[in-house]
Amino acid sequence: MTTETAPVTETGDPRALARARKRQSLTRFWRSYRAHRSGLWGLGLLILIALIAVLAPVLVGADSQNVTDAPGGPLEGPSGAFPLGTDQFGRSVLALLVYGARVSLTVGLLAAFLCVAIGTVIGIVAGHFRGWYATVLMRVTDWFLVMPTLVLAIALATVMDRSMWTVIIAIGVTTWPTTARLVRAQTLAVESRPYIERSRALGGGHGHIMTRHVLPNVMPLVLAQTTMIISSAILTEATLAFLGLSDPTITSWGGMLQDAREAGAVSAGDWWYLAPPGIAIAVVALAFTLCGRAIEAVLNPKLGARS
Length: 307
Known about the structure:
With 307 residues, the chain is mainly alpha-helical. The chain has helices at residues 2-11, 14-34, 37-54, 56-60, 93-128, 132-146, 149-159, 164-172, 177-191, 194-201, 206-242, 253-262, 265-268, 271-299.
């Protein structure tokens, strides 16, 4: 390791030195992450599901969602031709499950990104400015905290057009308060350090301090929080789709559960139509949770033992 960094130090190139430090940090992070077996299992599951979602047209065919030209009969049980049976239109449940991964993962990732972006900005601003700015922002945050998140998301999804972007916005704008609270607390801790006072004395403005000093120090917390939020976002998307508040023209796991309910699969005992999407939602949520806990344990080793 010394032989790799010595030439960079001798050249005195700040950018090369910064790149070398980033590579070393990533190497240390991956070495610590590999020590958590549950995190590796979660990461492996996510990579597998992501590959299946990306390769969906190749694996199950691009026309597998077609209702007018379905290959099977309505609600056929599992067989060699249809390993997970068919839906009420005769489409393969396995094919729908594969395509549903695309929508569920996309909604989960984008909604979590929106949630974390809003929470990070509000948390840093509320922690940096100590006047009435922080008071107003935190009172708004408290209002969102006491309101039921799912109820707010349902209200937004009801008044807006039924589309995937509506679900993303509804989840993102209602789940950011927890992130804002965490980021604000971390911002207050960072700004109490001596180098922040030194930066102010040297003429550093508010933007410089928040972007160059505070943001890099809160990013590890934001990264761990993101993995946790993705799993809850996927569950919320499934709930909204099950309630019929998402786009009915797209296939998602929550939408599959809604279609199964409307087709009478519950009363008829057609378990092959109900169980696969429910299990898929649980597996993806568990995988993101395992990754999030592993990342959190790496970034803060005081949280607990390796697993």
